[in-house]
Automatic annotation (TrEMBL):
Family: Belongs to the RTRAF family.
Descriptive protein name: RNA transcription, translation and transport factor protein
Pfam families in the record: RLL
Length: 217
């Protein structure tokens, strides 16, 4: 519902995000104005949201993630010692040392991060963000990634990424993915060259059949 959506955005800004001063929130609070979409688009730019105004689900997830981070920042002492109910025994506490073990795939930050990374790396979008991940984690892809390869060390700082995500860790991951992509392209080019050479070898050594009055195999 459009009205509920606008009220939701206003509530997030008023109660959690608070990016604007109170006196500057008038245009955003005027949810019945015909200019509200323009005010919302400006708001997205001001909070550095990476999504477009048409991408509402992704925008909602991203803004919720921002609100959660700010809520935690305001109440760090309250939340820092909190643990999930299932992680209170010794075994689960040890597992918490591995961040991916208790990864919540329904977390708004995780969803928004996947979508943002897909945008940056120009991966084909899908309504279900988990499907995008599965497409990148096929059995063939996993098997190929598991093969050990020896090569020369690469200094990432010498390679220009071409864009900045605002996060050093994500920047480095994007650089690695781009280099891997270049390697795959080079392998493909090598196979194409081999195919061309094979075809040229056939063309350069034809068999002549005088009975048919033609040259060829």
């Amino acid at each position: 519902d459009e009205t509920e959506f606008r009220n939701f955005i206003v509530w997030l800004e008023d109660q959690k995000i608070r990016h604007y001063k109170i006196e500057d929130r008038g245009n955003l609070r005027n949810i019945h104005s015909d200019d509200w979409p323009k005010s919302f688009e400006k708001y997205m730019k001001d909070v550095n949201c990476p999504f477009k105004i048409q991408e509402r689900q992704e925008t909602v997830d991203w803004l919720l993630g921002l609100a959660v981070r700010l809520e935690y920042g305001d109440n760090a002492d309250k939340y820092k010692d909190s643990t999930p109910d299932g992680a209170k025994n010794t075994e689960n506490t040890a597992k918490n040392a591995e961040p991916l073990i208790n990864l919540d795939v329904n977390n708004p930050d995780f969803k928004a991060g996947v979508m943002a990374l897909a945008n940056l790396l120009q991966i084909q979008r899908h309504d279900d963000y988990l499907v995008m991940l599965k497409e990148r984690l096929t059995q063939d892809a996993i098997a190929k990634a598991s093969q050990s390869k020896e090569g020369l060390p690469v200094a990432l700082e010498k390679h220009i990424l071409g864009f900045d995500t605002g996060d050093a860790v994500i920047n480095e991951a994007a650089q690695i993915l781009r280099l891997l992509h270049i390697e795959e392209l080079r392998e493909l080019q090598t196979k194409i060259n081999e195919a061309i050479v094979a075809v040229q070898a056939i063309i350069a050594d034809p068999k002549t059949d005088h009975r048919l009055g033609k040259v060829g195999r």
